[in-house]
Amino acid sequence: METLSLLLLSYLLLLAPKLQSSHATDFINSSQIFGYGDAIISSSGGRFELGFFNLGSSFKRYYVGIWYKQISVQTIVWVANRNAPIFNTSEVVLKLIQPGRLVLLDDTDVNNSTILWSTNTSRPVRNPIAQLLDSGNLVVRDAADENPENYLWQSFDYPTQTYLPDVKFGKNLVTGKEVYFTAWKSDDDPSSGDVTMHCDPAGYPQTIIRNATAVTYQTGPWNGLRWSGTPALSRNPIYTYNLELDKEKVWVAYHLLRNSVYIHLTLSPAGVLQSETWVEQSKTWANYINVPLDVCDSYGICGPNGLCSIDISPVCACFDKFLPKYEGPWDRTHWSEGCFRRTPLNCSEGSDGFLLYSGMKLPDTRNSWFNKTMTLQDCQQVCLNNCSCTAYTYLDISTNPGTGCLLWFDDLIDTRTLSQNGQDIYIRVAASELPISNGVSKGKRRRDILIGSLLSAFGVLTLLGVGLMLYIRKKKRKEKGEMSTQQDFELPLFDLSTITRVTDNFSFNNKIGEGGFGPVYKGVLEDGMEIAVKRLSKSSTQGLDEFKNEVVYIANLQHRNLVKLLGCCIQGEEMMLVYEYMTNKSLDAFIFDSTRGKLLDWPIRFNIINGIARGLLYLHQDSRLRIIHRDLKASNVLLDKDMNPKISDFGLARSVGGNEVGANTSHVVGTHGYMSPEYAVDGLFSVKSDAFSFGVLVLEIISGKRNRGFSHQDHNHNLLGHAWMLYKKERSMELPDDHLAVSCDASQVERSVHIGLLCVQQRPDDRPNMSSVVMMLANENLLLPEAKEPGFFTERRIATSEYSSSTQGGSSVNEVSVSLLDPR
């Protein structure tokens, strides 16, 4: 009887805490015991919750973890027993024991409890508690001491796969303790995988992702604003980054400025750092940005002293004045051996110098040195004085000019070009590879001048000879009836006989379209390559100048979102341009066609919008020539076999020099419905007039309606006015094409409409440039300014005859650009 009473008393003691636990608080004390099925604790602000959860498709495994409480899709941010799953939940308990340890016990064996997981403690305390903070940090502390410096233990020191705001990850340089992230093995197995992410303090801090011991990605060094290789993670109204570096520690963290925003930054089992934001309207996580982003983010893909550029093909090249180490493998895209200096350095004579590269992701800094106070001039001198120093730059670019010094030693690994927010780096080369003004040895300069004079004299003779040959060649061409111009085109020349043969003598069956330039034909070369041939029509509104214009500009452009010019044919009166063939022809053939438009769901349309934006950004900012297209429209956007957009038709394009962003003209050219007000009326064209055309195109892609000829039963506004009225009434979701209802991401569509309206604002200064547009499209958490009234918003009077000549459906293959003389 006495034994039975003791058993009953023990049962009641165990039962009482479980009954108390049904009402969740934000802490656990030493008198409580929790089992599977109990509501354990929630943070005081209700942002996070700690409890038991299960995973596994074939058989269930149970864990203790933390997740977002107010998000309907359970999203785990931390797992306690990730490497010790629970298979039998009936006897497993979580409790806090003296002297201050939180433990997960398996009491299946009444004589010998097994500890599945436990925290540690640096010292004993009399009254310990485990508390879940609203930051998602689970801490064990003395109930009477809330000082974070005195925590006995905290989960932020042992993160799993999720990088929560305010987690300080890095390394204590005194004790050697490191805080880093370890990915799950798979999406339903939270045990420690092979992929890890570290803030590496070697040299100068950078974030590195490893698969086992192999580095797969590095962010580039911290530059005072961001990691140099992650331009999209710039400072913004949503969160801030902070790096702390001294003799005792290096750590980095980001802080959320808006508590209403949920950001989920996760290291995936595939080695991708995925950033997502919660979209309440759709109840889903929306992708914000991923790294690695593209092939150029693959660590060291181009080998030592190689440079990766995603906008060229192949993507790898050597730095200027460097050559591939092994030509054969390099030509076969085996780039791992990298490049070497064409001329060896001559450090002993102190005659080396530096070439400036701009717009770069800085190389791996694990073999680097830095100084926070040194000037750039002192930095250069220190590098020159050290024979192992290969490059230098500013350490911190948060001010203008930058401050500090960062030096590299030995080979430069993992450098790439960036389309935005890239940095300058000065790379060491031999003096003979420098412009003469960069020489540092007077004696050598005299020698160089003498040699240069001799070479110049020889060069003059050579040029005279070449000039005579060109003159004779041009004269012969003229005699044969070929075009003679003041400029030779650096393009392959196709014979007229070849073009005639591959297009079946320009047969009607091979005709694929017609524009202001003339008809376009499909052809197939002998090697099977498909081409598109634009043939200048004798009745074309565009003539010799436009032909030359297109050749000059597009021959100098290379980008994945620009159509590729393969060559030209100039013979007699025939002038033709040969392009890569676009399987799906032009964008207008889809978005304005009620049947084909169904093939473009929202993800495809959004990808097209992004691609056009990146192509324009390249033209305006990243190309060798700063180019303003002046005729961006749906028919001038071609689609490849994967529906990727490529901007075409540069016959009306113009370049501006230096830092100029526009110019004016008395000869206004373009297409009605896409021209900005200041251009159509005053002849002022700029990057902002291209932005206006882009905004029109965005609204057309979303709505499936043309801006010009748009009609609505309730008003006489064009498409821009209609979109703006809906926007002002918070009814932008009425604008999308009916076909998009199923695939539509409401938040993304509304944001795209908003961006389109920002681009078509009346005043050019109010419109964003394309670098801002690309950022706004990629980052859903960036706050957008209010859109102002669009250009050409005045309600128009439309005669009945105009309605009858305007169509919303069907594609227009002969839409032409217009030239307006004296637009005033």
In words, what does this structure look like?
It is a single chain. The chain is of the alpha+beta class and 824 residues long. The chain folds into 4 domains: 14-158, Bulb-type lectin domain (Agglutinin, subunit A, Orthogonal Prism); 296-440, no CATH class; 484-581, 2-Layer Sandwich (Phosphorylase Kinase, domain 1); 585-821, Transferase(Phosphotransferase), domain 1 (Orthogonal Bundle), CATH 1.10.510.10. It contains 14 helices and 46 strands. An 8-stranded mixed β-sheet has the order 25-24-32-28-33-30-31-29, with helices on one face. β5 (61-68) and β6 form a beta hairpin. α8 (602-622) runs antiparallel to α10. The termini are far apart. The relative contact order is 0.06.
Summarize the structure.
It contains 14 helices and 46 strands. By secondary structure, it is an alpha+beta fold. Strand 19 and strand 20 form a beta hairpin.
CATH domain class name of the largest domain = Mainly Alpha
Would you tell me the structural class of the helices and strands?
Answer: alpha+beta
Give the total of domains.
Answer: 4
Number of helices: 14
Q: Give the CATH H-level superfamily of the largest domain.
A: Transferase(Phosphotransferase) domain 1
| Beta fraction | 25-35%
The dominant shape is globular
From the 3D structure, determine the CATH topology of the largest domain.
Transferase(Phosphotransferase), domain 1
Largest sheet: 8 strands, mixed
Averaged pLDDT, please?
82
Strand order of the largest sheet: 25-24-32-28-33-30-31-29
Low-confidence stretches: 1-23, 437-464, 474-489, 797-824
What helical percentage do the residues reach? 10-25%
- Gyration radius, rounded: 33 Å
How many strands appear in the DSSP assignment? 46
End-to-end separation: 109 Å
